[in-house]
Amino acid sequence: MTDWNGAEMERDGIFAGNNPFEIAREWLAEAERTEINDPNAAALATVDAEGLPNVRMVLLKEIGEDSFVFYTNYTSAKGRELTVNPRAAMLLHWKSLRRQLRIRGAVTREEGPAADAYYASRSLGSRLGAWASRQSQPLSSRAALMAEVAKVTAQKGPNPSRPSFWGGFRIAPVEIEFWADGAFRLHDRFVWRRQAGNETWNVERLNP
Questions:
Q1: How much is the pTM?
Q2: Which cofactors does this gene product need (predicted)?
Q3: Annotated catalytic, 185?
Q4: Would you state the pLDDT for residue 4?
């Protein structure tokens, strides 16, 4: 359900639709045809135990029915931060389209069949790399990392299982903003907001 709050009449073209996840999937699909590299690259923002913000690029792997999914090592800096404070913000910026998509919400782990399936779809090198890398921990040299990769390759063979310390995170947004560039910096912005666990969205146009 959606409460249009007067914004429905103005939302046409690239902003049209009754489901923000469907609109987001349409924007990503268009970016896949226009962006040269990694159209699913997203800036992920978290905070540490002291409340200090942290941001890095990740790859968005799924826009589900009610969430946005990415994968990582749970012992990485972002994994540890999301364990302490399971809330995050994400930004996708498509320079070729002059658009951006902003997401904020609560985070839960994706450790089931979906995580297993995505891990199995990765290249063998990437699967072995997930085992070998102690992500975000100090590393003495690249040679040490490659030695660990060789060790893991010998141990795990050609079909390694998904590590228990590696999997997905789902962001269930309470806010999704669609932004498109406008002439003279008079951009178009529509934000969808809802309470956590509530299916009802409120949509508003924002000043640029």
A1: 0.91
A2: FMN
A3: yes
A4: 47
